[in-house]
TrEMBL record:
Its main location: membrane. Belongs to the G-protein coupled receptor 3 family. InterPro entries: GPCR_3_C (IPR017978), RA-inducible_GPCR3 (IPR051753). The chain crosses the membrane at residues 26-54, 66-88, 100-122, 134-156, 186-208, 220-243, 255-274. It comes from Cyprinodon variegatus. It is found in: Membrane. It is a multi-pass membrane protein. GO terms for molecular function: G protein-coupled receptor activity; protein kinase activator activity. The keyword Transmembrane helix applies. The keyword Nucleotidyltransferase does not apply. Signal peptide: none annotated. It comes from the Eukaryota. This is G protein-coupled receptor, class C, group 5, member C. Residues 388-406 have a biased composition (Polar residues).
């Protein structure tokens, strides 16, 4: 008899609680089981790759989001695992995990996304984000609110609805205390999660008005995720509260919630986690491109400086052969002043000693035109008996004046 009641694809010794995992007549369980198992494996691989990429992240703004990304991925993995609780039958443990973990895991995902929106709003305007521990503690505080709500709700309902006596084994499983709850009450217990979803959607909108396009891309991803999540939640709530009673009855309640879990979890993986990890791993390439561009910019600037200096007449002297400064009124002579631009082989190349000797001769040939005002002397005027007073110069002067005729003549002394 037991063998005749066993669904196709399941063993005869398998507990009836797990029939949906192998029943080929109800294919929804097998399909959701495959998607959930693939999601778990994929999430674990992404989690390992995220942790392995931490030492190679160069941008500190991206490194600040690693803790939130890891927490978000952990909660997403929990959503895939929770799907199996909705595939299997109802008993005390499965119903308690459904009611408690459904809101807690979704609350953790959207709390991380909300704090990511806060980070991106700051970085899109200042290009500098808050520290890691600030973001993670903010997400933890938002998540603990949902934990407290679900814990209190679960304890209160369990105390108010004890187990029903005088029933067989199968009805006890279906009417266990955590399972004895209306669909409307289950939805009302998730109001805080709905507030987090709406807050995430609204907080992602101002990111698009920021100045830095790099952070706008991440903000656009969160905007799309929150919008798709809102659509998924509206669909399953309408189906769970109103549609199932008119179409398939209570038998469609578990598939509805399981489909919502798998669909929303895969949206998180495909539209956020994978692009986020790719952005973290592309930091090194971005820095290499920035270094090459910086080098090219420096080269252009150096050429520009050379062009600016070439328009001016700049005379460079080799300080190893520089001479003392000439006296006042003398013109400085450059040892390279005779350069005409001809080839080295066709031009006479003077030696350093010849250049120094030539410079010294030029300085000696240039007379000094310092004017000395003569001073009249009474003694010289009496001795000469002439009407023209004689002048005396100081010993240190390099010129003397001669009196010839009506005026004074200046004769340089070589």
């Amino acid at each position: 008899m037991a063998a005749n009641m066993t669904p196709p694809g399941c063993g005869s010794d398998l507990d009836s609680l797990y029939y949906n995992l192998c029943d080929r007549s109800a294919a929804w369980g097998i399909v959701l089981e495959a998607f959930a198992a693939a999601g778990i494996v994929f999430s674990v691989v992404l989690f390992i790759s995220l942790l392995a990429s931490v030492p190679f992240i160069k941008n500190p703004n991206h490194k600040n989001s690693v803790a939130l990304d890891a927490s978000f991925l952990f909660c997403t993995t929990g959503l895939f695992c929770l799907t199996f609780a909705f595939i299997v039958g109802k008993d005390f443990s499965t119903c308690a995990s459904r009611r408690f973990l459904f809101g807690v895991l979704f609350g953790g995902c959207f709390a991380c996304l909300l704090m990511q929106c806060v980070r991106l709003n700051i970085q899109a305007r200042r290009n500098v984000g808050p520290r890691t521990w600030v973001l993670w503690l903010g997400a933890l505080g938002l998540w603990l609110v949902e934990v407290v709500i679900n814990t209190e709700w679960l304890i209160i309902t369990v105390v108010r609805h004890p187990l029903l006596p005088n029933t067989t084994v199968e009805p006890i499983r279906a009417t266990a205390t955590p399972c004895n709850i209306a669909n409307q009450d289950f939805v009302m217990a998730l109001i805080y999660v709905m507030v987090l979803i709406l807050a995430t959607f609204l907080a992602s909108l101002p990111i698009m008005a920021g100045k830095y396009a790099e952070w706008k891309k991440e903000g656009a991803l969160i905007l799309v995720i929150s919008l798709i999540s809102i659509c998924i939640w509206v669909a399953w709530i309408v189906m769970y509260v109103y549609g199932n009673e008119r179409t398939g009855g209570p038998t469609w309640d578990d598939p509805t919630l399981a489909i919502a879990l798998v669909a929303n979890a895969w949206v998180f993986i495909i539209l956020y986690t994978i692009p986020q990890i790719c952005c973290l791993n592309s930091d090194e390439e971005t820095e290499e491109d920035y270094g090459e561009n910086g080098y090219m910019n420096r080269g252009v600037g150096y050429e520009t400086i050379l062009k600016e200096h070439s328009s001016q007449k700049v005379f460079m002297e080799n300080k190893a052969f520089s001479m003392d400064e000439p006296g006042k009124g003398s013109k400085p002579v450059s040892p390279y002043g005779n350069y005409t631009g001809q080839m080295r082989a066709s031009v006479y190349q003077p030696t350093e000693l010849a250049l120094i000797s030539k410079s010294a001769d030029n300085q000696q040939q240039q007379p000094s035109f310092d004017i000395v005002i003569p001073r009249a002397s009474l003694a010289s005027a009496a001795n000469s008996g002439s009407s023209t007073p004689s002048t005396h110069t100081e010993p240190g002067n390099s010129t003397h004046l001669q009196s010839s005729g009506p005026g004074l003549q200046r004769a340089p002394q070589w």
